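Lecture 7 notes: from sequence to structure.
We start with the chain below.
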Amino acid sequence: MDISQINYFTSLFFTFKIHNMNTAKTADIATVANITEIEVSYKTLNTNKPVVKSSQDAYNYLKESWDMNTIELQEVFKILLLNRANQILGVYEVSKGGTAGTLVDAKLIFAVALKSGASSIILSHNHPSGNKRASQADISLTKKLKSAALFLDLEILDHIILTGEGYSSMADEGAL
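Predicted C-alpha cells for the same chain:
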C-alpha cells in the first residue's frame, strides 16, 4: 500500500454536538447555570491502513508525502500519527521554515495527536543541507517532546531526518 491510499485527516470525522441543558426549573436562578453537554464521536473512512514496522517503513511513507522538489530548499517538520497497532492514521505538516531551520510548536503536535486519536507519533523533518545526522537542537527538541508525551500517554517512537539521498533514524541510532 502506498501513501496515496492514506487519506490524511480527511478520513477522520469528528462530530461535536453541544446540547444546552437549561436547568431553569430550579427556583434559585442565581445558583443555576446553563450546563453545556458535549458529545464527541470519531470514525475513520480508511479501513485499510498501512502498518509501520521499522524506520525504513516510516521513511518510505514520509518520503511519499514530501515535496522532493523542495527537500533541499527549505526545512519542513511533519508528524506521522499511529494507532496502537502502528497503523498510520495520517501525516500532518507542523511547520515549514527556511534553509537552516523551522519552528516547532509542541502544543500543535499534541493537539493534532490527541484529536486524531493517535497512540504514538513519529517525528520527522528534512535537512536541506543533506546532512543526515541529528543536530544538538534536534536531539534537544526530541527529548523535550518525548518527555511531554509521557504526560499524555503518547509515545514518541522515532525521529526521522530525511534528505534527498536517504534518512537517519534517532531510534535506530539509540539517540531516542
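Points to note: The helical segments are 55-65, 106-115, 136-151. Strands lie at 12-21, 35-44, 76-82, 88-96, 120-126, 155-163, 166-169.
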